[in-house]
Amino acid sequence: MDSLRVEIDFDFIGGQNAILLKATNITHGFVEVKSTALDLGDDRSLYFLNDARLLGVELECEYPTILDPGETNQVIIPLSALTKLFAQHKVVRPATIRAVFRDGTGASFFSASRRLI
Questions:
Q1: What does pTM read for this prediction?
Q2: Cα–Cα distance between 59 and 52 in angstroms, integer?
Q3: pLDDT higher than threshold 50 for residue 81
């Protein structure tokens, strides 16, 4: 599969262990992702994310762990991946979150980024 770049605009939604991104438009290899709900189910996780600060962060996940098998237009990022990444960089609040997704071989991938105010 050829590489696919994904530009997203999202909110953190889902359970305490995941962030869900829902694609709403796919055009010319670009995917626009929009979500509106916010419910992490864990006040501490929510506080941690709201209290995070960094110019930018990047994380990688393999397809099997981030694609919802029932919904091809949804991507799930484990919250643990962000928590670990933030801890490693002593993050207080990210200005940008960029996620890079690869398949098992690492050959196919797409990236998603969100600029935070």
A1: 0.28
A2: 15
A3: yes
